[in-house]
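Postdoc handover notes: sequence design on the structure in folder B. Input tokens:
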């Protein structure tokens, strides 16, 4: 798909929404049948190689490390969709990198996820360092490989929260919850206590759509309260050229193996400056 063909998306409007609201819905970028077929295959791989929390969540980091090379081409739209890349370039600048696409599969019965912002925002808060306000460290797209609805666990976002303090919670040495400040604790309490003012927006869409979001957004995965609907997403993160995905972002799981990266088209190789083998400590683990 080229940029012209994807022109049902108004790119100027998408850039504006991403800047100001912190996220943008991108409907129908991948054919529905392809998205559903990817979802089925990735469920299979997640069961074989992924992790599970035992409550209905299954994940598989960097799916390319598990696919057969003949399958790469079919799955590449998760990494090189031209609309997404245009928005990544706009937000992150020249030479942006990608992390390996990771499965987020939410089965019926899985509870709500915790409200958080993505790496490295929690790190700044926990270190009591100033939080950079005008830098986007990570821009992620959550690809909907099934329909995403309120009931089956569509991702929830607090609009404009990429400009707020960091919502993340961590535990101190005695196991007590800690927050960046009391304002964050109170706002979180309201939303996690049932969100009576309906502040969160749910990213709903049909299979083949995506939601692109600024990593500093307050967001969470929804509960899947359906009896029989699987919610399968794949998150592909993009980050600026100057970021180290392991020492800076703490995302070793997003790296491709060298043999996988080197078997990819040039466009993908350029976006994967770092591979697992660059970090010997990961291989010893
Ligand atoms: O699965 C989802 O809807 C969101 C996952 C998420 O919050 C994350 O990966 O940071």
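Designed sequence:
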């Amino acid at each position: 798909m080229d940029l012209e063909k994807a022109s049902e998306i108004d790119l100027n409007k998408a850039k504006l929404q991403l800047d100001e609201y912190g996220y943008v819905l991108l409907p129908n970028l991948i054919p529905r049948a392809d998205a559903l077929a990817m979802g089925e295959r990735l469920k299979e791989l997640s069961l074989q190689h992924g992790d599970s929390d035992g409550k209905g969540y299954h994940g598989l980091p960097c799916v390319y490390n598990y696919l057969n090379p003949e399958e790469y081409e079919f799955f590449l739209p998760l990494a090189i969709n031209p609309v997404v890349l245009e928005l990544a370039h706009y937000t992150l600048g020249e030479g942006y990198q990608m992390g390996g696409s990771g499965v987020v599969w939410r089965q019926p019965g899985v509870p709500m996820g915790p409200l958080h912002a993505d790496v490295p925002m929690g790190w700044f808060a926990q270190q009591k360092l100033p939080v950079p306000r005008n830098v986007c460290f990570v821009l992620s797209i959550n690809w909907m490989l099934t329909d995403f609805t309120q009931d089956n666990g569509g991702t929830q976002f607090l609009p404009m929260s990429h400009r707020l303090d960091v919502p993340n919670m961590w535990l101190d040495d005695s196991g007590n919850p800690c927050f960046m400040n009391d304002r964050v604790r109170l706002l979180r309490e309201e939303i996690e206590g049932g969100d009576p003012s309906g502040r969160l927006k749910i990213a709903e869409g049909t299979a083949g759509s995506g939601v692109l979001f600024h990593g500093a957004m307050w967001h969470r995965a929804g509960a899947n309260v359906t009896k029989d609907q699987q919610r399968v997403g794949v998150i592909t993160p993009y980050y600026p050229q100057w970021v180290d995905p392991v020492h800076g972002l703490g995302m070793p799981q997003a790296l491709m193996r060298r043999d996988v990266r080197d078997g990819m088209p040039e466009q993908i190789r350029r976006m994967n400056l770092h591979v697992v083998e660059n970090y010997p400590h990961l291989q010893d683990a």
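Context for whoever picks this up: The CA atoms of residues 158 and 200 lie 5 Å apart. Don't rerun without checking with the PI first.
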